[in-house]
Design the sequence.
């Protein structure tokens, strides 16, 4: 799939403002797509459309840092104020934290594990949390679980 096709497909289920922090969306508007990694967007599309097949929420319901995080967001800014380097898949447009009203995070992780052949690239998922964190940092494994 081309990047344009991926973005068009995602548009059926997500708005851009759900996938980037409010700072980024206010400044860049629809041009903020440029900050989201193509592989990460493709994974998001495949998860929603093919693997999980349930409604997913990224930013919303009081959450603002579950997609792309900029340096003004509380999580990166807090680390920087503490003198800690903060490099995360979220700051690079390669990660999403997702929830669903229809499926637990544990069940989402199980579905991913049983459908790895559908994934367009290697991914990481975070274990032990009540949301699905998925990113495209490449560890060399199709699905790498971390905590």
Sequence:
């Amino acid at each position: 799939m081309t990047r344009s096709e991926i973005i068009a497909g995602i548009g059926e289920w997500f708005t851009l403002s759900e996938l980037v922090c409010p700072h980024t969306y206010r400044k860049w508007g629809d041009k903020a797509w440029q900050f989201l990694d193509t592989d990460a967007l493709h994974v998001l599309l495949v998860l929603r459309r093919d693997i999980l097949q349930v409604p997913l929420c990224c930013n919303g319901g009081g959450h603002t840092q579950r997609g792309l995080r900029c340096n003004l967001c509380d999580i990166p800014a807090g680390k920087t104020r503490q003198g800690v380097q903060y490099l995360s898949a979220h700051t690079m447009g390669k990660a999403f934290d997702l929830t669903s009203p229809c499926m637990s995070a544990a069940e989402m992780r199980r579905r991913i594990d049983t459908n790895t052949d559908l994934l367009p690239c290697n991914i990481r998922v975070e274990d032990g949390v009540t949301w699905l964190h998925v990113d495209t940092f490449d560890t060399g494994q199709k699905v790498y679980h971390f905590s």
